[in-house]
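Reviewers asked in the last cycle whether our approach scales beyond single polypeptides. To address this, we selected a multi-component target totalling 673 residues and predicted its structure end to end. The input consisted of the following lines:
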Amino acid sequence: MSDEKPTVPPVHWESGLEIKPVYGPEDVERSGGWDGIGRPGEHPYTRGIHPLMYRKRPWTMRQYSGFGTAQQTRERFDYLIRNGQTGLNVAFDLPTQCGLDSDDPRAEGEVGRVGMAVDTLADMEQAFEGIDLNRITVSLTINGAAVPIMAMYFAMARKRGFALETLRGNCQNDILKEFIGRGTWIFPVEPSIRLVGDTIEFCARHAPKYSPVSVCGYHVRESGASPAQEMAYGLSIACAYIEHALERGLDIDQVAAGITFNFDIHGNLWEQVAKFRAGRRLWAKILRERYGATSERAMKLRMIAGGGGGGLTIQQPENNIVRGAYYALASALSGTQTMALCSYDEAYTIPSERAALLSLRTMQILMHETGVCDTVDPLAGSYFVETMTNEMEKLIVEVMEQLAAEGGIVQAVAEGRVQAEVNRQAYEREQKLRSGEIRKVGVNCYTQEEEEPEVAFHPFREEEAAEQVRRLGQVRSERDGQAVAQALEKVRAAARAGENVMPAAIDAVTAYATVGEVCGALIDVFGSYDEPIRF
Amino acid sequence: MNAPGDAARQPVRVLIAKLGLDGHDVGAKTVCRALMDAGMDVTYTGLRQTPEEVAAAVARTRPEVLGLSILSGAHLPLCRRMKDALGAEGATPRVWIVGGNIPQQDVAALEALGVDAVFPVGTPFETIVDFIEREARS
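The resulting structure, written as structure tokens, was:
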């Protein structure tokens, strides 16, 4: 071996790790060795959570979609399913996400704009009518208002004849990350976690195949976190929910089996791969060593790895199609269970049908034409990938330990410290983009003078919002008002008494109580969140 | 009391607000940091402000600059209400800017409401800083 230092400029990953020009077996040894690799489908699942991975079951394709009324959203769902999509990921409009009804003054101008408007069970019924809920699994992207929306989904499924005991699907329901980024919180931090606990407990008892929480490193990353922080914050958040559930006396194997993950895929390809392989291994170890889990399902980090919105650009929007393909490759090489891509027009608008189809086709081309599904974890054994998987794991542990030493994720979020930290990084990243230190094609290199983007904006139709309000008014006038009032009182009583609110919420929405009414009943007891402003 | 001429050296006072239900606050908060780094006196409202609440804050604190960040697409209805609310409070800031996910085709409509400049996603910080420095002191 020569002792000469490499004469090339240093390269660092966003997470801070330095990358050598060449890796060899000694690097793997030095970074922690080969022992942590294991076999696919076996603890600690570095190589994937199934023995045969995509050879047996390719990833689920689940584009995030929804806009306007339930009827319009349903048409987009049908279009995607007709074109080969294998799951649904529902986007709700902002009033629904914030627990407001479509006729609330605060909802003005926002009804159906960035997702599907849902006020009552009637909307939920219309959106999923005729869809086999166990064949096309449904992911509900709802957080602050998860209690009424999950309750509506369960009530709808029951009415359709699906037993909760066998119902599959998942809900995002990760409120801690909403306080960090995305911002659809409703209640203060502590009761918010308690409500997540209620859904975990309810599912553990009554809907064991349903995943009540999908912990999102995704939005923390989009808010400015590095990939290592994304994984560290995500796993720390998952631990917070688990510890809350364990305090209720629930079984670790049951609780952990209901928790899935949602991660981001933009940035350095190899950094993502190392992040996922390291995260999967670390999660398995945490479950077994810290919490004493014994079931395999509990220890497997199941995830959707997709999106990549933070990597897309307004400039030269068609470049985003190419970026999407690389992100999809990163996701597949990382062993994801589900994939979704941000569409090329998504930096501007709700994806057009054409853009959504291109995202779907991107994943289908990857799956069927590139051979990426032919063998499990094809990168395993690479000196570089295994070294960096080891290094990433150490870094993720470091971030988690530091967070724990500073009082833990819940306190850090409540005080706004995580928010301030990731925003500081977002600011620094933006400055590096401006200075050209981080290269971004079409933004700070290979720019074009004529930048008229040819992106069609998703039309917002006032009359559809008006139709939604009219529909809500009709449901309100036709339902049994007294039954609704009584059911809402039971929601309040359960919240006050510290009982699980889910049974009362399901009864209330079955009586056609609205999202806003159920959230309002909970606000009566818990109050609203007061956002800490910290820089 | 400041001596005449010192006024120009007083930091420009800016209120950055998130209107409506949109939770995308990375842009608003990074712009706050950029303006602070440029020596301005910046207040950030946090998420989910109504136009009426923001107008009341403008009337109360009298910033020279009001900056709104909107990425949900609801900028036109929200800015219409913002204009009415500012009028009702009798509190028109010297400079009113809007940033976020704003299509070019909506810029004229926003300007007709009294918005002085629109800074879409991707606008360099220095463009915003320079505009404020120039307009707020004019």
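Confidence is low (pLDDT under 50) at residues 1-5 of chain B. We regard this as preliminary and will revisit it once experimental data from Aim 1 are available.
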